Amino acid sequence: MPATARRTDGVTPTAPTAPAPPSPGLHTAPRVDLVLLGVAVASVSFSAPLIAATAAPALAIAFWRNAMAVGVLSPVVLLKHRDELRRIGRRPLLLAVAAGALLALHFGLWLPSLRMTSVASSTALCTTTPIWTTILLRMRGHRPPRMVWAGTVLAVVGVVILTGVDMTLSPRALAGDALALGGGVAAAGYVLLGAEVRRTVSTTAYTYVCYSTTALILLGTCLVAGADLGGYSATTWLQLAALTAAAQLLGHSLLNRVVSTLGPSVTSTAILLETPGAALIAALWLGQLPPVAAYPALLVILAGLALVVRASRSA
Asked: Where is this region: Disordered (predicted)?
């Protein structure tokens, strides 16, 4: 219909409507972003084993990995991104702060679960993030392809199998599973908000606001809970530094980098690859082998991941 034509519904358009830009996905993303995504997943795979091996309170570990990251980013932000932070709009700023609050909730739930259940189980349940991402996207009006839903359902089946494995172990392990699952839900909100903020804000500026918020919230939580924030051995401080470098600065920051081009569904789904990565590292480093019945569950979760990735390629 021409722009000047009269419509029967009483509304006269003022200009032709431009076609909507394609949604971010694997088919439109630069190849370098796929490489960065792989590096990010490999980096966050060190998170659970390092946390399990670090002799410090779980909440303190969560605080220090964010506080140390803020310390590393501060000189870069002050030198190169100070003007951007001054010009950042109210909405992106509030969304970045909200993302930081959800990241704090994610860490506050997930890290204690690592001391209550196995690394493989905790990581698998926490990385159900794409399931909740898909549901939240649907609630916002997006219509994911059927294959995404099929992959999501298959991943849920794997989660149920894995939870059943821990139910046969102890009530404490089941409680740890519940905390890890809550951490996965919080992470979904964190990824979705990050994707929105990254439309207009650089990776460095966004991560700085987000990590600062997370660190402040976790600091207050540690003080209220009475978690010791110091007095650690040199080995523990080195482990905290390694966790910050690998999982936080490389892992989470690179995920924040690629989420604007790959989209929240692909980014959050790829995090599921952390599950076998963390399990392998935990087996080789900590000698912590998951129960035999957990392996089929992990395979089912990865099969769901494969369906979601395939759907994203053809979207």
From this structure: 1-26
Position 138 in a domain: yes
Number of domains in the chain: 1
Range of 40's domain? 31-314
Residue 1 lies in a domain: no
Please count the other Cβ atoms lying within 10 Å of the Cβ belonging to residue 167. Answer: 12
What sign does the dihedral 250-126-264-147 (CA atoms) show? Answer: positive
**Mean pLDDT in the chain?**
82
Q: Cα angle vertex 207, ends 78, 70, to 5°?
A: 55
Does residue 295 sit within a domain?
yes
Distance CA 244, CA 65 (A): 5
Note the pLDDT of residue 2: 43
Query: What's the mean pLDDT in 285-292?
Result: 69
- Kindly report the length of the chain: 315
In a domain, 261, yes or no: yes
